[in-house]
Amino acid sequence: MSQKRALIVLSGGQDSTTCAALACRDFDEVHAITFNYQQRHAIELESAIAVAQALGLASHEIIDVGPVLKGTSPLVSSNTLGQYNCADELPTGVEPTFVPGRNILFLTLASNRAACLNLRDIFIGVCEADFAGYWDCRQSFVDAMTVALGEGIFGQPDGFQIHTPLMSLTKSQSVILAQEVLGDRFAALMALTHTCYAGVKGGCGKCHACILRDRGFREAGVDDPIWQFRPVAV
Ligand SMILES: [Zn+2]
After folding, report:
1. pLDDT of residue 132
2. Topology of the domain covering 5-78+98-194
3. How far is the CA of 202 from the centre of ligand 1 (A)?
């Protein structure tokens, strides 16, 4: 029987770590790529390295794409990062943190590495339930990219399968799923992850990413292992 092999786009955050755990459950050999796009929260690169090691991934490549992703997003500029007290305060529509073309670039480069590794299955932890404002986190976008990349690299619309197991899950459902998949490794793995846009270890608790992550853990009735590192008590 041939080995099932997959590639995961690993950011080092909660969702991509959960995705990586799922890939490890369902595939025999999992490779990872992480992108350094000069994001403000570059601390997540360290998380990605730690997560890849903890999960025993077959390989982990950090691809430095330099300053190619520009925009008004505070993640890639000096613009002020929004601070909120609760999820109700989050702006509707496209979030100011949206980075145009980010997942287009990431999946394009992932398809190159997948082809080089001679594998056809790519995992990415995008989720449209909590990130409706990010156009490149929707299933319709992933479906379109699947066709474009398959046609462009193999001449087949189904040349690649892009797995998005978190697509329709809420953050709290993702927490429960991660618990199920990781079992007694859940706390240790989640403690390695980084989500905060401000780059604060343990989370600032005020940025868009922290607000959603905190709400997910609270709704799941689970203490987030990163809270132990938070500068201000949760
Ligand atoms: Zn934060």
Report:
1. 55
2. Rossmann fold (3.40.50)
3. 8
